[in-house]
Amino acid sequence: MEWSIQEVARAAGATSRTLRHYQDIGLLPPSRIGHNGYRYYDDGSLLTLQRILLLRQLGLGLPEIAKVVHGRTETTAALRGHLEILLQERDRIERQIASVQSTINKTERGVQLMADEMFDGFDHTKYKEEVEERWGQDAYAKGDQWWRNLSSDERTAWVDRTKDLMAAWTAAAASGIPADSAEAQNLAQRQFDWLASANGGQEISYGYFTGLGDTYAADPRFGANYGGDAGARFVRDAMKIYADRHLTT
Questions:
Q1: In angstroms, rounded to a whole number, what is the distance separating the alpha carbons of residues 66 and 64?
Q2: Of 34, 45, 37, the residue nearest 11 (C-alpha)
Q3: Across the chain, which distance is largest between two alpha carbons, in Å?
Q4: What's the CA gap between 208 and 238, in Å, rounded?
Q5: How far does the chain reach from its first CA to its final CA, in angstroms?
Q6: For residue 231, how many other CB atoms are within 10 A of its CB?
Q7: Residue 144 CA to chain centroid, in angstroms?
Q8: What are the Cα distances from residue 64, in Å, to 20, 78, 136, 137?
Q9: What pLDDT shows up at residue 178?
Q10: I need a surface site. Which of 35, 43, 245, 247 has the fewest CB within 10 A?
Q11: How confident is the model at residue 138, as a pLDDT?
Q12: Pairwise CA distance, residues 41 & 147, whole Å
């Protein structure tokens, strides 16, 4: 038997858009595509989808799920990696709870608050799920570990550096200079160096760099950091030009 994409989406509690995305990333191709362009799924496809949804419920990101589905990683190995991330997150949440409790207690007793205590546990996990889904759990784990290893002064310096870079991008975009200008490409080099430092000096690939540029332009939350949609598109274009000139595809 075969089922249409609408029937499968309805039965699985998913959406047709989700199933098309799974096809686009090579995770769940339909068993066939009809002459009318409609996608159809057979028994084997439904079993694969069931496995994907189960692993998603367990918290695995799509890159890790793809490795499991395609037989490149055992399920237990993938789950162990995910467990390590969960344990790190539990530690962060426990520290955050302790920080809030300490702040309440000291405020009630009129004791001087310490900044390090107030902000313990409040770090850069805001986009954890998105990072894992786009680039995998390993990418998030390395970034998270890098941040935790920074001292308080180093974190402050990093935030200041980030603000300066974003402000420079916003000003450049507002000035109307082209994305391939020397000034824009200098900013793209700074963006590359900024990312490389956050990745512990690891290689920044062409796909990673240009993919981030696409994210800035596509997501208003990121685009706001660069002056809005027009500014984000300017950053994306400049990063793409830089990548074409300096990075290996």
A1: 5
A2: 45
A3: 74
A4: 15
A5: 42
A6: 22
A7: 12
A8: 18, 7, 7, 8
A9: 94
A10: 35
A11: 64
A12: 44
What is the residue whose two structure tokens read 């180093």? 154
Beta-bridged to residue 33, according to DSSP, are 39
- DSSP of 125-182, one letter per residue? -TTHHHHHHHH-HHHHHHHHHHHHTS-HHHHHHHHHHHHHHHHHHHHHHHHT--TTSH
Distance separating alpha carbons of residues 180 and 137, to the nearest angstrom: 34
Cα gap 220→228, rounded to integer Å: 7
Positions in the chain short of pLDDT 50: 112-123
Distance separating alpha carbons of residues 87 and 92, to the nearest angstrom: 9
Q: 183-221 as b/e, with b when 16 or more CB fall inside 10 Å?
A: ebbebbeebbebeeebeeeeebeeebbbebbebbbeeee
Answer yes or no: are the C-beta atoms of 45 and 33 closer than 8 Å.
Answer: no
Per-residue pLDDT at 188 = 95
Residue partners of 236: CB distance under 8 A and separation at least 6: 213, 214, 216, 217
Q: Is the Cα dihedral 37, 41, 44, 49 positive or negative?
A: positive
Amino acid at 45: S
Cβ contacts of 32 within 8 Å, gap of 6 or more: 2, 39, 40
pTM of the model: 0.48
**Alpha-carbon dihedral of residues 130, 221, 142, 164, nearest 10 degrees?**
170
Tokens of 28: 């769940």
